[in-house]
TrEMBL record:
InterPro entries named among the record's database cross-references: 6-PGluconate_DH-like_C_sf (IPR008927), NAD(P)-bd_dom_sf (IPR036291), P5C_Rdtase_cat_N (IPR028939), P5CR-like_CS (IPR053790), P5CR_dimer (IPR029036), Pyrroline-COOH_reductase (IPR000304)
Cellular localisation: Cytoplasm
GO cellular component terms attached to this protein's record: cytoplasm
MF terms (GO), sorted A to Z: pyrroline-5-carboxylate reductase activity
Residues the entry annotates as binding NADPH: 56
Keywords on record: Amino-acid biosynthesis, Cytoplasm, NADP, Oxidoreductase, Proline biosynthesis
GO biological process, one term: L-proline biosynthetic process
Coiled coil: none
Name this protein carries in UniProt: Pyrroline-5-carboxylate reductase
Biological role stated in the UniProt entry: Catalyzes the reduction of 1-pyrroline-5-carboxylate (PCA) to L-proline.
PROSITE patterns: P5CR
Amino acid sequence: MKRIGFIGCGNMAQAMIGGIVKAGKYPGSRITASDLNEKNLAAVVERYGIEAAANNIQCAEGADIVILAVKPNLYERIISEVRDAFREDAIVVTIAAGRSMDSTEGAFGRRIKVVRVMPNTPSLVGEGMSSLCNNDLVSEGELQEVVEIFESFGRTEVVEEKLMDVVTSVSGSAPAYIYMFIEAMADGAVLDGMPREKAYKMAAQTVLGAAKMVVETGKHPGQLKDEVCSPGGTTIEAVATFEEKGLRNAVITAMRRCTEKSREMSRG
Ligand SMILES: NC(=O)C1=CN([C@@H]2O[C@H](COP(=O)(O)OP(=O)(O)OC[C@H]3O[C@@H](n4cnc5c(N)ncnc54)[C@H](OP(=O)(O)O)[C@@H]3O)[C@@H](O)[C@H]2O)C=CC1
Ligand SMILES: O=C(O)[C@@H]1CCC=N1
């Protein structure tokens, strides 16, 4: 069984480690992580039974698949620190927004197997959405191995690299928009007298159920919406108000900004 190394053990790495271990795909003993924040790392080791590396170099040396889970602006520094520790046939997996595979190879200063992935934090509860692309050194079998890691805690898509900026907008960053929507729904319910905890539960379960309807029935979201809107009823009042307030336009405009930001980050 391969060893997976995480360099950086913050929000996204913890969501992935939690997802992998809970799925039973890899035991904690096959996962190593390094992080500057020792307290943080010790808590993850304690929670998931993974191994702590003394530093980033040790983490890279022992791993077959090394996931770089630090902020994009640290990539150059971390890669120059660990590049000589990488095993010849190791695969580097990048999850940073706006970080092209070419720029990763450039930082290594040599050809290296790269898989670029954009995951999201619902990985922690087994409902992640991760999109992947790979460079020409990665074989079909190696890509499949990486896909299987990400599939153990959610759904995956293999996409062309040029789609990675919009992937960031539609799934990487998107949980934040949904949390805002849930929070806003709960605020609306609290305004009309609902206790807040109940409001969060009702709003979140409704988002979960509606998403499951789209995924499992295969029906168009517009049709599912129509099935809720009784003629002259309550729902169409809310739908008409959302249109009046420009919900659809706000979502599209915000997502274009997000995609553009990812493109800007790619340009450096
Ligand atoms: N959060 C998300 O929803 C998603 C994030 N991503 C990508 O994941 C990457 C990580 O993001 P995220 O998890 O949110 O960030 P975090 O800041 O939560 O995690 C990064 C971790 O790396 C640590 N770190 C900083 N410097 C070093 C170093 N020199 N060596 C080792 N560890 C170090 C940080 O410690 P300290 O806190 O002490 O600085 C922190 O624990 C980013 O590239 C981001 O684009 C991708 C998809 C979704
Ligand atoms: O906000 C960010 O830049 C990262 C990338 C996708 C989600 N979080």
